[in-house]
Amino acid sequence: MRHRLSNSLFGKTALAAAALAGFLMFTGVPPLRADHDDCQRRVARADHRLHEAIEHHGYRSEQAERRRHELHEAREHCWNARHRWWDEDERRWHEERDWDDHDHEHDRDHH
């Protein structure tokens, strides 16, 4: 009887510990990487929408200007959160707030 009681107590303790570990794993603070992935996705989506607006409505269209503004806001969001911004065209992170210079290079390509 005593052996059965200790196995039962051990089983309950192990189950409670596993449940607690699972709870802490899923309710803990999300990893820093998730925020970077969110920034990257946000900028990539805005960049894609800009390219689509240019393709469908023209480089100097109102739609393209609106999408440029959204891309700028996405980059600002990343910069304010992590002091980095994602460059979808070059597929890399920039450590300097130089997206205006980058955009002017693209403007020259379209003229």
Description:
The protein has helices spanning 2-27, 32-57, 62-82, 99-109, and strands spanning 85-87, 92-94. The chain is mainly α. Strands 1-2 form a two-stranded antiparallel ribbon. β1 and β2 (92-94) form a beta hairpin. It is elongated, with a radius of gyration of 25 Å. The model has no long low-confidence stretch (mean pLDDT 81).
Please describe the structure with a list of short key phrases separated by commas or semicolons:
mainly alpha; 2 strands; two-stranded antiparallel sheet; 111 residues; 5% strand
Structural class: mainly alpha
- Report strand %: 5-15%
Query: Rg, please?
Result: 25 Å
Going across the biggest sheet, name each strand in turn: 1-2
Total helices: the number is 4
Report the major sheet. Answer: 2 strands, antiparallel
Fold blueprint:
Layout: H1 2-27, H2 32-57, H3 62-82, E1 85-87, E2 92-94, H4 99-109
Antiparallel strand pairs: 1-2
Helix pairs in contact: 2-3
What's this entry about, in short?
The protein is mainly α and 111 residues long. The protein has helices at residues 2-27, 32-57, 62-82, 99-109; strands at residues 85-87, 92-94.
